Amino acid sequence: MSDKQLEIRGLRARIVGGEEILKGVDLVVPRGEVHALMGPNGSGKSTLAKVIAGDPQYEITAGDIVLEGQSILEMEPDERAREGLYLAFQYPVEVPGVSIANFLRLALNARREEGDEIGVMEFYKKLQRAVKELNWDDSIIERNLHEGFSGGEKKRSEILQLLVLEPRYAILDETDSGLDVDALKVVSQGVNAARGPNFGALVITHYQRLLNHIVPDRVHVMVNGRIVREGPKELAMELDQKGYEWIREAVGA
Amino acid sequence: MAALTDNPAVSADAVESIVSAYREPAWLADERRAALRAYSDQPFPTEKTEEWRYTQLKRFSFSGLELAKAPKDESVPERIRMRIADSDAEGVIVHKGNKVVMHQATIKEAGVVFTDLRTALRDHEALVRAHLYDVVNARQTKYTALNSALWENGTFVYVPRDVEVELPLGAFTTADSGGIGLGRTLIVVEVNARLTFIDEYTSEPFAERLFFDAATEIVLKDGAKLRYVSLQNWSRNVAHINKLRAHLGRDARLESVTVSLGADAARAEVESRLEGPGSESEMLGLYFADEGQHFNQFTLQHHATPRGFSDVLFKGAVRDASQAVYSGMIIVDPHAQKTDAYQTNRNLLLDEVAEVVSIPQLEIAANDVKCSHGSTTGPVPEDQRFYLMSRGLRPEVAEHVLVTGFLYEVMSRVTLPKVAEYVERVVQAKLGVPGVKEKL
């Protein structure tokens, strides 16, 4: 078995002190592949995304998350990020007073040794390339992080950050929700630009429409806190035609 | 808590020795004597005194201290030289102890007076007499009485009618020895005139304790406009108390910002009295208390006229075993109809041992007004912290970004970039994350 993968093993988790939401999730995303995670509302998809990133409002009761052979359960969210994990948030927060440019410089430098901070020219080249990839205006990088951003702009910012930070594994939590067709294309273009042998992604979506633009290598279906089915990209289409009731019945969930 | 006690250094002899040393005019001598009587007649505040509730009174004690006199050394401290070099001020005065150690001004606008109060009394006595003690005087508090009786020097600014002073003027107040320090700023902006003024308090640490009692009197005549900055960054051996009060004429506008970063304990009383219809008062405040500092702020928006507008926004972060107290009052007189008055205080608690008390209050006697007040105190929002950390930022860097972001709302409203940059640097130094440079 290759070590170059993100592996979720028998993961059980709940909101601290609350009811169990993840009831034993098993999932593998090899580096170099893009997988889709689909499922009805409330099945636990977003919880899985946040638990992988280390959101402190959840606690893990069993199982493990293994990033290229190393358990990350004991790591703080910032350590996980520096290990190459990235979560594109469903609802990115607003942080006033810090520009996107400054924020990304801090985030990049957090991955480097002290005294080896990224050069100004190198940084802006990288940033401008990402901005261009998303057909965005250069002025966006001077705006405060998500302050006054529309829902679509926030989602675009999540992908901009992904392109600049170049994680090894990204979880995209319903990045398509609230996007019109044009924005969906732009965002998908950004994700596709990140694809390559050193990039693995888990794309969480409720609808098949995103997967027309980001074609997945595998599809996982989550119902009631478990992965109930796994298959090739055609599974997404089948789900779209038959609906989630079909899968519920099929697996007896 | 120990009660504050009287101090033998505050005496009739002390008043007379100032009067005779400077051969002061009789009217001023009488004012001082009356102020000393008012001082003696007023009790020290206690924890039960409403305006002083939650104040750690003993940290503002001056018992056992002598009146501060000449500095040990009359040189201008390097930190002030750097601040002056970095400013675009047209005129600067530096007070150290009871001495003026620097005064330079190249004011191109005609008729502007910018000098120390001693010189102003000599050269412009009628102007000083017409305004001194009008706004801050002995009848207000024990501390304003102390200041009114015993101030030795200060800063005087007069801007004649219709004159717009383009570049800022500023006073630096510093010290190198302890005692009771008394500072006074008197600013008079005539009809339709404009001014920007910065009062800055700063020092290198020195061994003795300094209790500094400042009085800032601001007179804005009809249509006058003033941007005023009070920037307190004393060393930690200082306790600072400041009554900063403005009277606003018809259509006058005040934009003030009061910044508290230094000192062991600091109390700022920031007050506006709107006396002329259409006058506008915007009072901003920013503070960041750490390592056991105690910051105390009181704001007053007194609408004594119809159609006034006032807005208060005080924001601060508190960490370690530090306290911030905010108490604010909006008073609307019965005839002050069509008043718009807003008051907001927001506090960020950076850990579990930091404390905040916030008491916004309204006293509205008119019936056709728009008033609101709000107060929030809470820790750093967990979702913001998680977001920043999920991008790889270490917890201390994430905190830095969040404090900066929290204070940004105030700093973005300060229209003086040099001041904003400096405050940003001091806040960063307090946060202590090297290599992090946010816009604040």
Characterize the structure shown.
The complex is a heterodimer of chains A (253) and B (440). With 253 residues, chain A is of the alpha/beta class. Chain A has helices at 45-53, 77-82, 100-110, 120-133, 151-165, 181-194, 234-251, and strands at residues 5-15, 20-30, 34-38, 58-67, 70-71, 85-88, 169-173, 200-205, 218-223, 226-231. Chain A has a single domain (5-251), classed as P-loop containing nucleotide triphosphate hydrolases (Rossmann fold, 3-Layer(aba) Sandwich), CATH 3.40.50. Helix content of chain A is 34%, strand content 26%. In chain A, the strands form two sheets. Chain A has a six-stranded mixed beta sheet, with helices on both faces. A four-stranded antiparallel beta sheet of chain A has the order 2-1-4-5. In chain A, strand 7 (169-173), helix 6 and strand 8 (200-205) form a beta-alpha-beta unit. The mean pLDDT of chain A is 93. Chain B has 440 residues and is of the alpha/beta class. Chain B folds into two domains: 12-276, no CATH class; 380-440, no CATH class. In chain B, the strands form two sheets. Chain B has a ten-stranded mixed beta sheet, covered by helices on one side. In chain B, strands 3-4-6-8-10-12-14-16-18 form a nine-stranded mixed beta sheet. In chain B, strand 1 and strand 2 form a beta hairpin. The radius of gyration of chain B is 21 Å and the shape is globular. The mean pLDDT of chain B is 94. Chains A and B meet through helix 2 and helix 3 of A and helix 7 and helix 8 of B.
Topology:
The complex is a heterodimer of chains A (253) and B (440).
Chain A: E1 5-15, E2 20-30, E3 34-38, H1 45-53, E4 58-67, E5 70-71, H2 77-82, E6 85-88, H3 100-110, H4 120-133, H5 151-165, E7 169-173, H6 181-194, E8 200-205, E9 218-223, E10 226-231, H7 234-251
Parallel strand pairs in A: 3-8, 3-9, 6-7, 7-8
Antiparallel strand pairs in A: 1-2, 1-4, 4-5, 9-10
Helix pairs in contact in A: 4-5, 5-6
Chain B: H1 12-21, H2 26-41, H3 78-85, E1 91-96, E2 99-105, E3 113-116, H4 117-123, H5 125-131, H6 142-150, E4 155-159, E5 169-174, E6 179-189, E7 194-202, E8 210-220, E9 225-233, E10 238-248, E11 253-260, E12 265-274, E13 280-289, E14 294-303, E15 309-318, E16 323-332, E17 339-349, E18 355-364, E19 369-379, H7 382-389, H8 395-411, H9 417-431
Parallel strand pairs in B: 1-5, 4-6, 5-7, 6-8, 7-9, 8-10, 9-11, 10-12, 11-13, 12-14, 13-15, 14-16, 15-17, 16-18, 17-19
Antiparallel strand pairs in B: 1-2, 3-4
